């Protein structure tokens, strides 16, 4: 075999390998786009200024518990009146607003019962928990549909939210689970794209490696 023929065969081999990888890349990208199109896109409210979107490792580190849960039903709604600490800028502003005759700052919360299917980080007792969410984020956070399975990143509630859990973030605090146990993050940022379409079991292993 002469030198020119060897070079030609090598070039063909490289092109075949490159073509194969490109085909895999295109197929993967099309699969991701198809999955993303099946779920609604959410963004932050116009009044909310967000800095950097936290990655999954940060979410795990700041969550009290991470679970796979199935939405059962809405339980109740309740209203919370903001009682800010006067020593903080927010509290001082609230106090000034009230002194001018304005109504107190009130926020309505809705509580949803969640069946716990698996605990990925942290610890829980019982097979069901209550998640409470601010109604101010309606339209800016995923709707909790009975029967739907999701991964929830949660923090323990305190004060008026005692005994309940709150999502750590209106967007990053949720990950959809498809009917065939693939995951689809609510956040569409590039750092979350790598998780789209991977198996729930693979994602569980990732969470395990991020535990505190």
Automatic annotation (TrEMBL):
What is the protein name given in its UniProt record? Uncharacterized protein
The species this protein was found in: Caldicoprobacter faecalis
């Amino acid at each position: 075999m002469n030198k020119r023929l060897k070079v030609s065969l090598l070039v063909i081999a490289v092109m075949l390998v490159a073509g194969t990888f490109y085909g895999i890349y295109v197929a993967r990208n099309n699969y991701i786009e198809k999955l993303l199109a099946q779920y609604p896109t959410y963004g932050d409210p116009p009044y909310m200024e967000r800095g950097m979107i936290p990655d999954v490792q940060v979410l795990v580190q700041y969550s009290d518990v991470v679970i796979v849960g199935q939405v059962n039903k809405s339980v109740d709604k309740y209203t919370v009146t903001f009682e800010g600490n006067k020593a903080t800028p927010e509290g001082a502003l609230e106090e000034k607003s009230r002194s001018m005759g304005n109504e107190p700052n009130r926020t309505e919360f809705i509580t949803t019962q969640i069946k716990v299917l698996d605990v990925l980080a942290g610890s829980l007792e019982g097979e069901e928990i209550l998640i409470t969410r601010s109604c101010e984020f309606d339209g800016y956070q995923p709707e909790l549909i009975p029967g739907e399975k999701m991964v929830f990143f949660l923090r323990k509630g305190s004060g008026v939210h005692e005994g309940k859990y709150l999502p750590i973030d209106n967007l990053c605090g949720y990950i959809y689970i498809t009917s065939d146990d693939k995951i689809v993050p609510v956040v569409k940022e590039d750092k979350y794209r790598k998780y789209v379409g991977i198996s729930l079991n693979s994602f569980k292993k990732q969470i395990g490696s991020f535990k505190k």
